[in-house]
Amino acid sequence: MSAAAAPSARRPDAYWGMAVFLVTDAVIFLLLLVAHAFLRRQGHGPGAGALSAAAMLPWSAALWASSAALVLAPRVRRAWASAALYGLGALLGAAFLLGQGLEYRHLLAQGHTVTSDLFFTGFYTLTALHGLHVFLGLPLLTALATLAARGRLTERRAGFREAATLYWHFVDAVWVVLYAALYVWGGP
Amino acid sequence: MSLILPTSPPESGRVARWLASTDHKAIGILYVLTGMVFMLLGGLEALAMRAQLARPNATLITAQTYNEVFTLHGTTMIFFVVMPMLLGFSNYLVPLQIGARDMAFPRLNAFGLWLTVMGGLLLYASVLVGPADAGWFSYAPLSEKPYAMGEGTDFWIAALLFAGFGTTLTAINVIVTAIRYRAPGMGLWQMPMFAWMAFVNAFIITFALPCLSAALLMLEVDRRLGGHFFSHGGSALLWQHYFWLFGHPEVYIMILPAWGIISEVIPVFSRKPIFGYEFVAGSSVAIALLSFAVYAHHMFVVGLGRPVNLAFAASTMLIAIPTGVKVANWVATLWKGSIRFELPMLYALAFIVQFTFGGVTGVSFAVLPIDWQVTDSYYVVAHMHYVLMGGTIFALLSGLHYYFPKVTGRHLTRSLGMWSFWLVTLGFNGVFLVQHALGLMGMPRRVYTYPDLPGWGLLNVLSTLSAGLLGVGMTMILWNILRSLRVGEVAGANPWNAWTLEWWCASPPPPGNFTDLPPIRSRRPLWDLAHPEDTDADRPRRHDQTHGHIRPEEREHHQ
Ligand code: HEM
Ligand SMILES: [Cu+2]
């Protein structure tokens, strides 16, 4: 596509479809988070104290940076640059997953499992569900990168582009909340 | 999304073409058929329970089997009968009523259908490993590992997750379709009543279904990975909160499209426009919002504390207002109408009576001391069946008889239809009316047998015998459908003289639905077309000006 295509005044259907879907998704995350916040008082372990906000920050920053890449991608002039930005987004997402894997290994080695404590029941459920969302987003971003590289991310595919982009921004935004609630917040 | 795939598959057998179709009409019909197949299963389960309960101290089936059967029955009826049928109606009707060619996302639509079917198959696959036995509400910790060791509950969870996701996809489709694909000239306030209710319903689905999904995910984490959400330090009450935060809106998910059908049928067979369109449509929005605010009325007896109970009691009474507004509008539509007692109308009238009755017992629950007395008794069973069966299923039957000519091009056989109507109506009331009394006499629900207390045996055997009648009636409806497909009288495009768009195209509608559309300037475009001298567009409030009296021109349209 001409990467600089003016954003159409009318959002494509797929964008709105994705938006409604993400509302349902947000409700799931919200209820899980409320359950977690409500139950973590009853935990017995170190809870949030076992997590290191600083150690997780670089990986989180990678994820957030990927959203920035996606904002830029449709605005740059050249097709290859656009493709590279989508590709970068996917790579940063993959990096986040790697970080999450390392985090899990670290925690499990210390004996913090789903069963060990109420805090961690909620922690693993929330982060795994979020990780699954990131994982499902990777093929979408890869597809965007491939289409862009071949010059086939035309207006006809605006629906796919906008829906996938919205999805990814949502996943990143959820991580802002989760990072704050799990890593930063000391608990009730 | 806009990948380029052919919308219709290459030449293949007729069945395969149906199954692979992405046409909203084919999908709608397949949903209804799915619902019918599961209705057969759910109905047999109901008869098994009634057989066991016919006499006191009976031992036809064991307690364990009874638990499994009532779990399967409840889950089947709610998720695999009522929901698929209603989604089927939405899929079939919404595009036709708003003058669209198809849903916004046809392939996603087909995917949603197959997810729902998959869910149903999973539920019944669980029969091989021992089905879930904790009820359709699966209260924790009864649904947790130590109390439900088998894999039945895991199948149950998977089944509901699949079906729930399918339902969500339909909701997305309905929302985008209703917003984006209305025919030129049709504002939101010109949409036919069914489309309106389906539209509002899609929003309830959007917010309610994920509450169930979240609860199911948490339960599965507990069961599979040893988490502690609902037991071992977690909170069993949390399950009830999340389940009913879904569960109560769910009952409105099940009644809203039913109201939509009734609001189509009553005006057509009274020869009057619906009374108070804005109120009928608008009160749905009020209900959508309130439905989340009343959910804890299912938990009056768990000890939430007085202020909480009072708040939920008050909101529960409030929700009866917009509900009552609808009933009042239907009755006002009937008032001095020129009523035709065709089959769809008979079911609609039975609906009004039975649904109102169920609503009244619902309000009685909002009075806390009454609820404390009768909760978990057969009084609740009676209430839920009056609204769900006497309400939703009767509305579905009304819609089935009303739209059968549109879908198939043929009429259902009237005599057979009359017999089945009376059997079903008498049977239904026979089964459940007496259960109010049983509940007041203290018979608890979810029990597989009961002692021989005075009166219990007699009322229970009445209930079981009526269940037999009901079963015969339902079977006759099925027979009528199969028979009329071949020998039914040919219907034509608009057999009932209705005025909304779906009656504009041929019966059955061709692929793509419409070749042309009439100008849409009011809620009844076909009326405007037939009466250029006195259109709704010129006189939008005709019922106000005629004080509810039928207009002479309307009466002419007696067939
Ligand atoms: C005026 C409207 C209504 C009111 C005020 C109302 C009120 C209630 C209350 C307070 C309960 C809880 C009783 C208890 O467990 O102690 C209840 C149960 C129930 N209601 Fe309603 N209701 C209304 C309409 C409906 C409708 C329209 C439906 C379905 C189409 C419905 C389906 C049910 C079901 C299935 C249950 C039992 C759930 C279970 O325990 O498994 N209700 N209702
Ligand atoms: Cu309720």
Structural write-up:
The complex is a heterodimer of chains A (188) and B (559). By secondary structure, chain A is mainly alpha-helical. Helices cover 73% and strands 0% of the residues of chain A. The longest helix of chain A is centred in the C-terminal third of the chain and has 32 residues, at 118-149. The termini of chain A are far apart. In chain A, 45% of the residues are buried. The model of chain A is unreliable at 1-8 (pLDDT under 50). Chain B has 17 helices and no strands. In chain B, helix 3 (63-97) runs parallel beside helix 12 (378-408), helix 5 runs antiparallel to helix 6 and helix 9 (306-334) runs antiparallel to helix 10. The chains are: A mainly alpha (188), B mainly alpha (559).
Q: Mind sketching the topology for me?
A:
The complex is a heterodimer of chains A (188) and B (559).
Chain A: H1 13-39, H2 53-72, H3 79-109, H4 118-149, H5 158-184
Chain B: H1 14-19, H2 24-53, H3 63-97, H4 106-125, H5 152-180, H6 193-225, H7 236-270, H8 277-293, H9 306-334, H10 343-366, H11 368-374, H12 378-408, H13 414-440, H14 456-487, H15 525-530, H16 542-545, H17 552-555
Helix pairs in contact in B: 2-3, 2-4, 2-14, 3-4, 3-5, 3-7, 3-12, 4-5, 5-6, 6-7, 6-8, 7-8, 7-9, 7-10, 7-12, 8-9, 9-10, 10-12, 10-13, 12-13, 13-14
